[in-house]
Amino acid sequence: MINFMSSRAMNLSDKGNKNPVSHFILMGFPSSPQIQLLYFGVFSATYTLTLMGNTAIACAVWADRRLHTPMYIFLGNFSLLEICYITTTIPNMLANFLSTTKSISFVSCFAQFYFFFSFGCDEGFYLCIMAFDRYLAICRPLHYPRIMTRQLCTGLVIFGWSNGFIICLNPVLLISQLPFCGPNVIDHFMCDPVPLMMLSCSEVTTVQSIYSTFNAFFMIGTFLFILCSYALVILAVLRMPTAASKHKAFSTCASHLAVVSLFYGSIVGMYVSPTLRHSVEVQKFITLFYSVITPLCNPLIYSLRNKEMQTALTKVFWSAMPLLKHK
């Protein structure tokens, strides 16, 4: 807290500086060059595995006609979102591990901020859409084909991809209009809004309150929607007559609930209440968890308990083998 106040005081004292910041320095994970190379290797492998896992799921859904159902269509789009989400930060972080300057331009920094949080919001909306789909399938099975039509499914897919880009525009524009007079060093591996606001040379209490309110509405709103959907699903499952039907219903929801727990568990405290001063290292670890580790785990979660997905992934793997051998 003392460090934060001294940093804010230093920035406010620079109000007279008329030279606006043209770029930022992303400190990332300060360490020796040898450790930086080790980080590069670890995160390169993580990024590659994440791309492979999520691409495999998207290809399996596209290639296998048996998976052309709303549940798997939403899952395939969610996997594509994960690819976009992780690509907004990891390539730049990998480049900084090998760089001595570690700089990012003002425009690129806010573009990263915008796309990272837009894709993150889209993931929250897709988790809501997937919960709604499971609610209809389990609680309203007789009406499901009539309600979840091709038109509704297409509309939900478009809504899931576009809405994050719309609602994230205002907070990004609001923060980008703050004056940045220096210093320009961000003790983070990405352009996170909280350290960005700390670098502003003007009072940011109002902007921070607006940003916190925006995050609170989004996080709490989507989380309550998912929670209510699954509360109704669980009540419906408990009323099912046979153990086999209960097991099948629970198995289709277990992986989704695990992903919801990973997604919301790590970021609610981080972004709903940024005024709670986490240490810099804790901030980096939490951001690293939900921006890198969660996208890596999701393909494993969705494929381990789903026999249909396992079968489709096996077909994709064996169909790709001749191409790999030919190369």
How many strands appear in the DSSP assignment? 3
N→C terminal distance: 57 Å
Oligomer: single chain
Mean pLDDT: 84
Radius of gyration: 22 Å
Report the total helices: 14
Strand order of the largest sheet: 2-1-3
Low-confidence stretches: 1-10, 12-16
- So what's the overall shape? globular
SSE pattern: HEHHHEHHHHEHHHHHH
Helix percent band: over 70%
Main beta sheet: 3 strands, mixed
* Content-based structural category: mainly alpha
Beta fraction: under 5%
Report on this structure:
With 327 residues, the chain is an all-alpha fold. The chain contains 14 helices and 3 strands. Strands 2-1-3 form a 3-stranded mixed beta sheet. α2 packs across α14 and α11 packs antiparallel against α13. The protein is globular, with a radius of gyration of 22 Å. The N terminus is likely disordered.
Short description:
The chain has 327 residues and is mostly helical. The chain is built from 14 helices and three strands. Strands 2-1-3 form a three-stranded mixed beta sheet.
List the main descriptive attributes of the protein structure presented here:
mainly alpha
List the helices and strands and how they pair.
Elements: H1 2-12, E1 23-26, H2 33-63, H3 70-87, H4 90-97, E2 103-105, H5 106-139, H6 144-147, H7 150-167, H8 169-176, E3 185-186, H9 193-198, H10 205-238, H11 243-265, H12 268-272, H13 280-304, H14 307-326
Parallel strand pairs: 1-3
Antiparallel strand pairs: 1-2
Helix pairs in contact: 2-3, 2-4, 2-13, 2-14, 3-5, 3-7, 3-13, 5-7, 5-10, 5-11, 10-11, 11-13
